[in-house]
Structure formats: C-alpha cells, structure tokens
C-alpha cells in the first residue's frame, strides 16, 4: 500500500528533516503534501528523485491524507491537527499540545511502541530531551527498575528553531578554524561562551516547563506513574545535538557490567565508553559526533558514588541529534509502525 503523507510545517528545521527521514526510512509514500505558511507556498522541495511544491496550510489540504506529520508550534497544532483527524488522517504530532492528553499515546518506538494501538487519531512525539534521555534509561530500567532520575541537559541551539541555529552557525563561521583548537565549533563555543539555564517558562517549584517534561512525559512513556525526576535544562552554544548527564536510582541492584551489557544491546543506543581510547571521539560521546545521525551515544558509565546504596545508583552521559532522533526520526519511525 502507498500512503498520502502530509507534513504540516514543512519548512522548519524539523519539517525539513522529516522529508529526508521519509526517504531514508523508505516510507511507502504514494503522494507527499508539504504544507507551510502562505509565504512559502510555491517553493519546490526535492523528494524521491522529483520535486514537491509547497502548499499553503489550510484545513482543506488534509483531504485525502492518510498520515499527517505535525512540525509546528503548540498553538497551530491545537488548531489544525484535529481537522486533519476529521479529514480521516492519523496524526503524529511533534508539538507539546497533546503529549499529556490521556487519549493520546506518547511514543518512543524503542520503549512503548505498543501504545500506538490505542490512538484515537493523534499520536504525540515526545520532547527531544525526553527521547534522548529515555532511550538509554529504558534498557537499564528493564534490568533493575528505575525509581528516580537526576538529569542535567545541555541543549543545542537547534531546539530554539532554525533562526537560533542560523545565528549560531554564522558566529561559528565567523570564528573560522582556530589554530589553537582543532575543532572550530569547540573554539567558537569557548568564545561564544555563555549558557542559559532556562528553556521555557518557570512552573511549579521553580522548575521550567522544559524541565517538568522529563518527569511528566517519562511517567507516561515508561508507564511509571511514581517516577521522580529532578531535571535542569540549559541552553548551550552547540548547533544541533543535545547532551545529558543522567543519574538513575533503581529498586534492585545492578552491576556496571549488567548496565554495560544492557546498553550495548539496546536498540537506538551506541555505547562509546573507553577511557583508554587515544581520541576523545572514541573515549566518550560528544555533540559534534552525534549530529546528523539517529543513535543516542552513551558513555561515562559509572556508579553513582553519592548514592548511599551504590549497588542501586548509576550515572551516564549521552548525546543525540535533537532534530533527528529528538524529533523527525522518532516521528517518522512512529508513522512507519502505523503502516506495518
Ligand atoms: C528545545 N526541547 O530544545 C525544546 C524544543 N525543541 O528548545
């Protein structure tokens, strides 16, 4: 069967990536509709050896669509996507609009693909920092039962959308290749050098909306209503990969060897954890290495020596591409499961 697929928000960083992911994942697209604002209508986008013309996003555009991928902000998603369902499409939405709606499954395919079965027209794609932190957490949860997470995130400019990314990219280009430091971005990062410990607005107990997402979404995705998460989300001068320091507390003992084995075998994970490696690129994950690929790289695996019961505490570091696995790739993986 071939499917008529529409992307709402086709010109943003995530929407553009979705077009590429449909090709990469050999999605059975019979017809692709690219929907965006009136000012983008008429532009042509390369797809599957041909070209697709961008149309203005209007409710009528959903007629005949089997699947709609949402890559727009919460307000537009709330307004437009129910109309896509009314037109008979199944929606995979990357906004936060429906993520916590009890009638909407919130899905990371490596964790809870089975939840897709109870959708009522909309399936929500989790927040990027949630996906990147939970993909490596889940295999460890299956070994010893996670009860608590302490997470610090280092989130790329891409999370602030294409404009934020373009701004940082221009600064990095202006820095050129610093002789003292081989990686231009590392050089620029030290020169751009500021960190912003706020993503989203401040909510309960002084946590930001972004920080509460990991607890709220983590509980729903892993079916752990008692999960407790302390998260600090920071914007850093990196282009498109998010990094996270994750400390887990478990209800049962887990050895480092068990953790290492579970991560090495986990779908969606690449274990990069060799303190003796000559190159930093092989020693641990770095955002510069995880950009533009779909795996979550995990390293710096160690016991949590602050946990009074060290047999039940593990800390790791992970990096993943915010636009890909953090958004577009995960959404297209969900859509692909709908076709299987
Ligand atoms: C961010 N997670 O990084 C949010 C939205 N992508 O800004």
From TrEMBL:
<feature type="binding site">
    <location>
        <position position="322"/>
    </location>
    <ligand>
        <name>NADP(+)</name>
    </ligand>
</feature>
<feature type="active site" description="Acyl-thioester intermediate">
    <location>
        <position position="128"/>
    </location>
</feature>
<dbReference type="InterPro" id="IPR000534">
    <property type="entry name" value="Semialdehyde_DH_NAD-bd"/>
</dbReference>
<feature type="binding site">
    <location>
        <position position="155"/>
    </location>
    <ligand>
        <name>substrate</name>
    </ligand>
</feature>
<dbReference type="GO" id="GO:0004073">
    <property type="term" value="F:aspartate-semialdehyde dehydrogenase activity"/>
</dbReference>
<dbReference type="InterPro" id="IPR005986">
    <property type="entry name" value="Asp_semialdehyde_DH_beta"/>
</dbReference>
<keyword id="KW-0521">NADP</keyword>
<dbReference type="InterPro" id="IPR012280">
    <property type="entry name" value="Semialdhyde_DH_dimer_dom"/>
</dbReference>
<dbReference type="Pfam" id="PF02774">
    <property type="entry name" value="Semialdhyde_dhC"/>
</dbReference>
<feature type="binding site">
    <location>
        <position position="235"/>
    </location>
    <ligand>
        <name>substrate</name>
    </ligand>
</feature>
<comment type="pathway">
    <text>Amino-acid biosynthesis; L-threonine biosynthesis; L-threonine from L-aspartate: step 2/5.</text>
</comment>
<feature type="binding site">
    <location>
        <begin position="11"/>
        <end position="14"/>
    </location>
    <ligand>
        <name>NADP(+)</name>
    </ligand>
</feature>
<protein>
    <recommendedName>
        <fullName>Aspartate-semialdehyde dehydrogenase</fullName>
        <ecNumber>1.2.1.11</ecNumber>
    </recommendedName>
</protein>
<keyword id="KW-0486">Methionine biosynthesis</keyword>
<dbReference type="Pfam" id="PF01118">
    <property type="entry name" value="Semialdhyde_dh"/>
</dbReference>
<feature type="domain" description="Semialdehyde dehydrogenase NAD-binding">
    <location>
        <begin position="4"/>
        <end position="119"/>
    </location>
</feature>
<comment type="pathway">
    <text>Amino-acid biosynthesis; L-lysine biosynthesis via DAP pathway; (S)-tetrahydrodipicolinate from L-aspartate: step 2/4.</text>
</comment>
<comment type="similarity">
    <text>Belongs to the aspartate-semialdehyde dehydrogenase family.</text>
</comment>
<dbReference type="InterPro" id="IPR012080">
    <property type="entry name" value="Asp_semialdehyde_DH"/>
</dbReference>
<feature type="active site" description="Proton acceptor">
    <location>
        <position position="242"/>
    </location>
</feature>
<keyword id="KW-0220">Diaminopimelate biosynthesis</keyword>
<feature type="binding site">
    <location>
        <begin position="158"/>
        <end position="159"/>
    </location>
    <ligand>
        <name>NADP(+)</name>
    </ligand>
</feature>
<keyword id="KW-0028">Amino-acid biosynthesis</keyword>
<comment type="subunit">
    <text>Homodimer.</text>
</comment>
<keyword id="KW-0560">Oxidoreductase</keyword>
<comment type="function">
    <text>Catalyzes the NADPH-dependent formation of L-aspartate-semialdehyde (L-ASA) by the reductive dephosphorylation of L-aspartyl-4-phosphate.</text>
</comment>
<dbReference type="InterPro" id="IPR000319">
    <property type="entry name" value="Asp-semialdehyde_DH_CS"/>
</dbReference>
<keyword id="KW-0457">Lysine biosynthesis</keyword>
<feature type="binding site">
    <location>
        <begin position="39"/>
        <end position="40"/>
    </location>
    <ligand>
        <name>NADP(+)</name>
    </ligand>
</feature>
<keyword id="KW-0791">Threonine biosynthesis</keyword>
<dbReference type="InterPro" id="IPR036291">
    <property type="entry name" value="NAD(P)-bd_dom_sf"/>
</dbReference>
<feature type="binding site">
    <location>
        <position position="99"/>
    </location>
    <ligand>
        <name>phosphate</name>
    </ligand>
</feature>
